[in-house]
Amino acid sequence: MKTIFRLFIAVLVSVSASSCGAWLEVEPQNDITLEDYWKSEKDIRLALNQCYSQLRGQVNTLFLWGDLRGDFVVDGASNHGDYLDYERVLRLEILDNNSLSKWGGIYKVINYANNVIKYAPGVRSSDLTLGKKELNAYLSEAYFLRSLSYFYLVRTFKDVPLQLEPTDTDDVNVVLPKSTEEEVLAQIVTDLEWAERYIPRRYADPDLNRGFATQAAVQALLADVYLWMEDYDKCIEKCDKIINRSDYVLVEFWRDIFAEGNTIESIFELPYDVARGEKSPLKNVFIKDGAEVLSASTEVGELFTDRDIRKINTLILREGEDNYTIVKPLLVSNVEDANWIVYRYAEVLLMKAEALVQKDQYFEAQLILEEIRERAELDVRVIPSNREVAEDIILEERGMELAFEGKRWFDLLRMAKRNNYQRKEKLIDLMTKGVDPGSVPKWRSLLTDPMSHYMPIHRDELLSNPNLTQNPYYD
């Protein structure tokens, strides 16, 4: 009996320099057997396109995992029942039935990438026009997408199943036990270091250079991973490979990064185009039935000075209230056209500055901040020769530059866990700001457990996979 491989084939329908960039249209196809598929180079490209399409569908998850537990997001005015799980996270009342602890959508990206990694090499036996160089380039894209997915998973859950083989259907039934964070990170590094050697530096069609993985995208992800792993020399090395190029720079007008999309500052972003049926789901995270679901906190508003050109393009103070309306990710005229930026040049600069501070190279870090702050029309901010103070300055600058880009919680957690959780108390201070004052002592005690900083595994996953064990904080 033939094994059925159901693959929703993603078709690259159009590319236009005047659009948000390359977009993909997904069209369901009939069941395809493995014997019939993986015959030509086109089959590899279509399978990779499905990886990108699936990742674009996870944008809300990427934002919420990266921002909701931080100090920049608060409850909005909406009381819509669909968003009660957001409120519970904000109140620290997270249970194993919270929808935000579901990881199936991300594992589907991984499964699609695993299919490419396993089956693409066999295409060369039937398509003699497919060269080794081209094959390795395709494999590098798959390794990048799988690695990016796993990096989100380890930062959100810590220990997760390391699935490296594809399943035969769209239903991703992960039945492996958890691998440690260290094991998953080691696999990510191995895959990305290989991919960096073979992935295209640029594509012949310039419109593909932001929406598809390139060498710079791999290097940016590697820099981020090495920063998380506290390997500062390697982080700086990967950042410098991007900085020393001439094709990534800070755009002159900061607003254009989000209002226009696909700027020369962007390294990797997920594009959408309403005209071709590709709608960004991100709007639903912020607004439902005309009411705000999530708002910006007083804390993030107070980070900015009124002179900072980033402020008005990030949030707007609501009249008569302390909180702000979030505007940054939705600056385009049609919010469903809003691209989601995963990495951009400014973040590469800030990752390098953060790594330099950890090596006590304060003046070099300050020079980088001057470049970022000059564009924001701000004065130079002196970084003193004090690691903790310098670390806070970098964290604040990242907050202003990257607010609501799905970075803040990961930034706070990375800062806190550094050097064996040396700054755990700062993280706990920020996490307890939004809870009822009377319960702060209880939460401060509970949050001393580092496993409380990660999400629980959803109970559905535990029921379907007997090899899994729950995060002990939630037992």
From TrEMBL:
Residues 23-227 form the SusD-like N-terminal domain. It comes from Fulvitalea axinellae. The keyword Signal applies. It is found in: Cell outer membrane. This is Membrane protein. Residues 1-22 form the signal peptide. Coiled coil: none annotated. Pfam families: SusD-like_3, SusD_RagB. GO terms for cellular component: cell outer membrane. InterPro entries: SusD-like_N (IPR033985), SusD_RagB_dom (IPR012944), TPR-like_helical_dom_sf (IPR011990). Belongs to the SusD family. The lineage of its organism: Bacteria, Pseudomonadati, Bacteroidota, Cytophagia, Cytophagales. Residues 336-474 form the RagB/SusD domain.
